[in-house]
């Protein structure tokens, strides 16, 4: 009796193992499945265009900000002084040009009467040209000073959610440091890494089932929007020697291929960097059934 029970259990285990192995082979080739999927988005790094100490912070961590919203205020004092100096220089150059122009006009009138030489006229003309060039330089310096003063107010060039905000009033920032990170919630996608043997089945616009680790018991739908055409090991820079991998094992790990997936509806409580499982949908119910089961298992692990 015991021998029959052991035989029955052994048979069941073998049947399950063989069946599951067949399932894995089928899914790898016909309806590829992967647990190596990550939620991705674009992060907009807001970098100051001028340097200085922060006087005000207008946003907080996790705040949604529209394009054009103020983020940080850098101390305006030095830039206001630079603008005032540039404005004073501009006025001085305007006065110099006006005097040079009047002087040239007088010299030209006298030259027409033959009262002065051509050399004197050329000198007056050159002085007027130099004064005009200096005024143009002063105008450019003033425009730069005004622009730098405006740049002390950092604004959001794109809408996003403030993430990893570390700066406070009194801290120093410069154009080489990222002051604010804005996460673009409107541009979330899923990057899934499938084994390359599933490439024949992975086609653009094919539908997939998605289960997020953060949302058990829920299956989402999406579409393949793009398939990366190269991975790092497949790129060869011009002018460099080939890199040869010394592989001694008979069985090597399979190469992964990156696939980009757009969801029909991205859940609001999924964050960039979150993990997910993805499976290509089939005409039958294999994918739907497996992903539904997996969504329940996400309660456990």
Structure description:
The protein is built from 4 helices and 14 strands. It is α+β, with helices and mostly antiparallel strands and 301 residues long. It has a domain at 76-151: Helix Hairpins (Orthogonal Bundle). The strands form 3 sheets. It has a 6-stranded antiparallel beta barrel with strand order 1-10-13-12-11-14. A 4-stranded antiparallel β-sheet has the order 2-9-7-4, with no helix packed on it. The mean pLDDT is 86.
Instruction: Quickly name the level 1 CATH class of the domain at 76-151.
Output: Mainly Alpha
Specify Rg, calculated over alpha carbons.
35 Å
Task: Report the sheet-strand fraction.
Answer: 15-25%
Looking across the biggest beta sheet, what order are the strands in? 1-10-13-12-11-14
- CATH topology name of the domain at 76-151, in short, is Helix Hairpins
| Overall form | elongated
Helix content: 25-40%
Count of DSSP helices? 4
Helix/strand order, N-terminal first? HEEEEEHHEEEEEEEEEH
pLDDT below 50 for ≥5 consecutive residues: which ranges? none
Distance between the termini: 38 Å
The number of E-state strands comes to 14
Secondary-structure class: alpha+beta
Quickly give the CATH architecture of the domain at 76-151. Answer: Orthogonal Bundle
Task: List the defining traits of the structure above.
301 residues; alpha+beta; Helix Hairpins; 6-stranded antiparallel β-barrel; 4-stranded antiparallel sheet; 37% helix
């Amino acid at each position: 009796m015991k021998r029959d029970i052991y035989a029955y259990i052994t048979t069941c285990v073998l049947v399950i193992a063989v069946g599951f192995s067949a399932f894995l082979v089928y899914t790898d080739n016909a309806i590829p499945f992967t647990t190596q999927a990550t939620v991705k988005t674009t992060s907009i790094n807001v970098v100051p265009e001028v340097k200085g100490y922060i006087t005000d912070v207008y946003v907080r961590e996790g705040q949604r900000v529209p394009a054009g919203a103020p983020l940080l205020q850098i101390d305006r004092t030095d830039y206001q002084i630079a603008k005032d100096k540039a404005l004073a220089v501009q006025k001085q150059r305007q006065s110099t040009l006006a005097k040079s122009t009047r002087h040239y006009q007088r010299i030209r009138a006298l030259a027409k009467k033959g009262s002065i030489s051509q050399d004197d006229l050329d000198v007056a003309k050159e002085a007027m040209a130099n004064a005009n060039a200096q005024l143009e330089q002063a105008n450019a310096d003033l425009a730069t000073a005004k622009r730098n003063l405006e740049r002390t107010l950092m604004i959001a060039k794109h809408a996003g959610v403030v993430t990893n905000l570390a700066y406070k009033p009194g801290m120093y920032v410069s154009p080489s440091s990222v002051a604010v990170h804005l996460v673009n919630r409107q541009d979330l996608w899923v990057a899934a890494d499938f084994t390359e043997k599933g490439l024949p089945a992975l086609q653009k616009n094919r539908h997939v089932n998605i289960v997020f680790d953060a949302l058990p018991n829920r299956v989402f739908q999406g579409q393949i929007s793009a398939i990366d055409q190269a991975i790092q090991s497949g790129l060869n820079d011009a002018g460099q020697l080939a890199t040869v991998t010394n592989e001694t094992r008979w069985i090597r790990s399979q190469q992964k291929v990156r696939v980009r997936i757009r969801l029909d509806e991205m859940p609001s409580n999924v964050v960039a960097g979150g993990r997910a499982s993805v499976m290509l949908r089939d005409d039958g119910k294999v994918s739907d059934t497996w992903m539904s089961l997996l969504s329940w298992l996400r309660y456990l692990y």
